[in-house]
Design a protein that fits this description.
The chain is of the alpha+beta class and 200 residues long. Helix content is 56%, strand content 18%. It contains eight helices and five strands. Strand 1 and strand 2 form a beta hairpin.
Length: 200
């Protein structure tokens, strides 16, 4: 599956995974070094020395104020990095506007809400679809769609899919002037429609 297609299926977590992997590798390297140190690989006497070098302990004792400020600044930096990472991971996924023309002086973009509303209206006009939800994701230059359809109880899924692919998505591709528009389609049975009694 291409990167563009993955954008339609779910929010990208590549940067988060990269940070986690790098952090894990650093911690693993530190752990391996500590184990090797304890086993005496770097010398038997070195393994028996305190974890914090006596020279460092002496410097901290002689420069208590400086050491305290270094610890405070280091803690603040780690706090800011952690909060930034958490906020970035929890923030809502961007919904980009679509760039249709980049001719100098004639830049043309379409708002994501207008596109989503047009596709939703098209999807809800399909026989058997009770309601639809559309979200535009990806980037301005590489848009992708997430389309959720709720079907009535006796809807023909094959007919619905044929209409979605042949009409709804075809119009969207034509509007974006692209040959392929990555789209994730989720189909569910409308619970409200299923509970509605039939009249025979």
């Amino acid at each position: 599956m291409s990167r563009r297609s993955r954008a339609a299926v779910a929010r990208s977590t590549a940067s988060d995974r990269t940070l986690v992997i790098l952090s894990g590798l650093v911690l693993l390297a530190v752990g391996v070094l500590v184990v090797l140190l304890g086993m005496g690989i770097f010398g038997v006497y070195r393994a028996q020395r305190p974890l914090i070098d006596p020279d460092i302990s002496a410097w901290i004792t002689d420069n208590a104020n400086a050491a305290r400020w270094i610890a405070i600044v280091g803690g603040i930096v780690l706090l800011v990095v952690g909060l930034t990472w958490a906020i970035r991971s929890l923030r809502p996924e961007p919904r980009p506007d679509v760039l249709l023309s980049e001719v100098p002086g004639q830049r043309l973009t379409v708002e994501h809400s207008a596109i989503a509303e047009a596709v939703r209206s098209d999807a809800e006009s399909i026989e058997g679809v009770s309601r639809a939800r559309v979200r535009l994701v990806g980037t301005e230059r590489r848009p992708a769609l997430r389309l959720t359809l709720w079907l009535v109880e006796d809807a023909d899924v094959r007919d619905v899919w044929a209409e979605v692919d042949g009409r709804v998505l075809a119009r969207a591709r034509q509007a974006f002037a692209v040959d392929a528009l990555p789209t994730a389609v989720r189909i569910e049975l409308d619970a409200a429609a299923a509970k509605t009694p039939r009249v025979l």
